[in-house]
């Protein structure tokens, strides 16, 4: 194991600023979704992915991959959403072990109502606070860090 290379003052400020930004922004957006639409951020993400696919359905493993969720988390969350009438789970005809998650008409109505309000909140709290150059820089940073995370996560 290598010895820790501690963060200097500027690095510490940048790191902590990113952590606080992420936490506060996600808390704000989650609170807005819950208050206005009765959806959690997780519900919104599931419905958004399903609503953007042809036929409004995805194989469960594909949805889990898009969300970055473990199989058990996805299963539990879909179960809660199913009880609320927002999604259904359907058996895969060609693979008996597989299943689809599908958006219901109620779920589709809810995401259609929530999406315009959500984008207003995203713009007000984040997008409209940055210049186009800052947004481009943020995109480059995000892509660079995600690529590195992929390298660090790859088996040796």
From TrEMBL:
One of its GO terms (biological process) is response to stress. It holds the Pfam family MarR_2. It comes from the Bacteria. PROSITE patterns: HTH_MARR_2. SUPFAM superfamilies: Winged helix' DNA-binding domain (SSF46785). One of its GO terms (molecular function) is DNA-binding transcription factor activity. Residues 11-147 form the HTH marR-type domain. This is MarR family transcriptional regulator. It comes from Actinoplanes friuliensis DSM 7358.
């Amino acid at each position: 194991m290598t010895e820790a290379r501690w963060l200097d003052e500027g690095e510490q400020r940048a790191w902590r600023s990113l952590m606080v930004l992420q936490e506060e922004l996600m808390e704000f957006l989650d609170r807005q979704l819950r208050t206005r639409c009765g959806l959690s951020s997780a519900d919104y993400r599931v419905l958004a992915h399903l609503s953007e696919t042809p036929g409004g359905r995805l194989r469960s493993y594909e949805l889990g991959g898009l969300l970055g969720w473990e199989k058990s988390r996805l299963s539990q969350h879909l179960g809660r959403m199913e009880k609320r009438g927002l999604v259904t789970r359907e058996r895969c005809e060609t693979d008996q072990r597989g299943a689809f998650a599908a958006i219901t008409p109620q779920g589709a109505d809810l995401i259609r109502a929530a999406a315009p309000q959500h984008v207003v909140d995203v713009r007000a709290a984040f997008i409209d606070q940055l210049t186009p150059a800052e947004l481009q820089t943020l995109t480059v940073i995000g892509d660079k860090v995600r690529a590195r995370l992929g390298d660090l996560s790859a088996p040796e």
